[in-house]
Write a sequence for this structure.
């Protein structure tokens, strides 16, 4: 597995880490790799072993941590699926445009799906419907998407294009996602969440290889709670800390998270927006 640093930092530092993955499921015949690009907050571009592209919680254009090149949505390339954990703008803002640009389905909380259709934000055929604990295959049988609980809220604030007034609508219940790729590699994207005891069940039942966990505090878990959840509840092989540093309230840092984890076999990747991981 490689970490590929972005921009000047990459040129200066080169490849920082090169580790062998030892997860059980074998890759398919084409021996593809999983590429994960972090773009700040909770937005990731996941390229699967067969070349499908999944984007989570797209907030790019107004995200202060997104590298400038990715503020152009075309820079993401062809997108096959958009996953939205809840309706807040720092997770949803660019999802409709990205879906329409690529004719890609949006998976979102059920209430948000209905609201998007009612307001005409996306065409009905792109607003994919599923529910918590359900598993679906919106882009074919090789990739399984499961919605799980998240402890947060999900109102949609929308500017009416005709009146230019700011209105608030029901955005469904927030969710996290278990993303199972073609080779069986499982990612648990937590969305925005505080601690809840069923995280232990999620870890034991789905056994995620990679955890994407918010650490910023104030609106989500802080580093200490996130470390406890990682080590005692979910117990993944690998972790990417996310959802920190984009506004003055999200003060948690990867260092604080790693320090709180202490001695562990779990590998943490404190990457920067624009960096890529290859599994």
């Amino acid at each position: 597995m490689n970490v590929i640093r972005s921009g000047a930092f990459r040129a200066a530092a080169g490849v920082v880490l090169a580790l062998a993955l030892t997860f059980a499921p074998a890759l398919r015949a084409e021996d593809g790799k999983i590429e994960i690009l972090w773009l700040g907050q909770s937005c990731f571009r996941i390229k699967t072993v067969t070349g499908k592209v999944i984007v989570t919680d797209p907030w790019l254009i107004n995200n202060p941590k997104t590298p400038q090149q990715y503020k152009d949505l075309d820079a993401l390339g062809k997108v096959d699926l958009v996953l939205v954990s809840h309706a807040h703008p720092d997770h949803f803002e660019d999802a409709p445009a990205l879906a329409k640009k690529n004719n890609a389905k949006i998976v979102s909380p059920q209430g948000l799906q209905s609201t998007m259709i009612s307001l005409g934000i996306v065409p009905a055929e792109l607003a994919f419907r599923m529910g918590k604990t359900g598993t679906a295959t919106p882009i074919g049988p090789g990739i399984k998407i499961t919605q799980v609980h998240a402890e947060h809220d999900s109102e949609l604030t929308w500017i009416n294009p005709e009146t230019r007034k700011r209105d608030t609508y029901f955005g469904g219940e927030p969710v996290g996602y278990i993303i199972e790729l073609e080779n069986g590699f499982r990612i648990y994207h937590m969305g925005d969440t505080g601690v809840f005891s069923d995280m232990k069940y999620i870890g034991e039942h789905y056994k995620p290889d990679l955890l994407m966990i918010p650490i910023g505090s104030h609106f989500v878990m802080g580093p200490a709670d996130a470390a406890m959840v990682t080590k005692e509840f979910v117990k993944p092989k690998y972790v990417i800390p996310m959802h920190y540093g984009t506004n003055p309230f999200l003060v948690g840092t990867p260092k604080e998270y790693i320090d709180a984890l202490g001695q562990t076999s779990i590998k943490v990747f404190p990457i920067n927006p624009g960096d890529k991981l290859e599994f």
The first helix runs from residue 7 to 13. Confidence is low (pLDDT under 50) at residues 8-30.
